[in-house]
UniProtKB/TrEMBL annotation, chain A:
Source taxonomy: Bacteria, Pseudomonadati, Pseudomonadota, Gammaproteobacteria, Oceanospirillales
Keyword set, alphabetical order: Membrane, Transmembrane, Transmembrane helix
Transmembrane domains' residue ranges: 46-71, 78-97
Organism: Kushneria aurantia
Annotated protein name in UniProt: AzlD domain-containing protein
Pfam assignment, any one: AzlD
Amino acid sequence: MSASHFGLIALLSLLAFSVRLAGLFAGRAIGESRLAFLLDELPGLIIVALVAASMATEPGIYWIAGGIALLTAWKTRNIIATMGAGMTAHAAITFMGA
Amino acid sequence: MWWGVGLMGATVHAGSSQIVAVDQFSGGSAMLAAALAGAALNLRYIGMIASLHEVLGEKPFWQRLLAIHITSDENWALTMSSKKESPDIGADFLIGSGLTMFLVWVCSTTLGALAGNALPDLDEYGLGFAFTAAFIAMARSMWPGMDRLPSWTISFAATLLLSCQGMAAAYAIVGGTLCGITMLLFERYTKDKIS
């Protein structure tokens, strides 16, 4: 590893942590403002965005498995059961299509 | 050097940022430009960490700094969804799950650097879908009720649209979330106006 590699790691870690620190201070500022209600709403909005981003460019198999995972999650509210059902569906459809 | 990957994983702790920064740097970009490109992918953490305001509460400042460094998408989502089910879940859960994820992240990326191309593409075995399924389950736990359907739909659809237009997932997540917030504020504004 050269000095420039170390430099990149140091700089990136500083910038990445600064972003997180900005979130910490933003949370405090928003929490004391009339927009405090947004802090309760943010997690749900971010997590559906995470789901959308992870599925956006994936093939149909992913969406079918996603639908099965959603049904399982809706019925069971259990993370392990949802992961199990979703991954099994994904593997089964991939296997049948292969 | 394989240990450089472990060092970067431990100090930066942001997968997509690391990949982009290394990619840019190895492609000839200046160090600052590569680091900025990588860090910009982490912008969603402003919203995620801000939402931890109540969870971190009155913890000592050093513990809050530790908590925000070890927070990842997965343990943040797990904490927020678990808190919805059990309101007593707080900073200790976030830090405990964060440390677990952090160790797994550093060890697995280091092992990955050691193993190199000897490993098969684990996505082919459906492993990549595990995270999507976990996020779906956590979203279900956080589901607040039908009155939030418009803002959740907008957040999902906008992220999907932005990603399909070729925007990097990290930016699409920020964009989609902002659209969801806008919808929420609009709904609140019109409700206040009517009442």
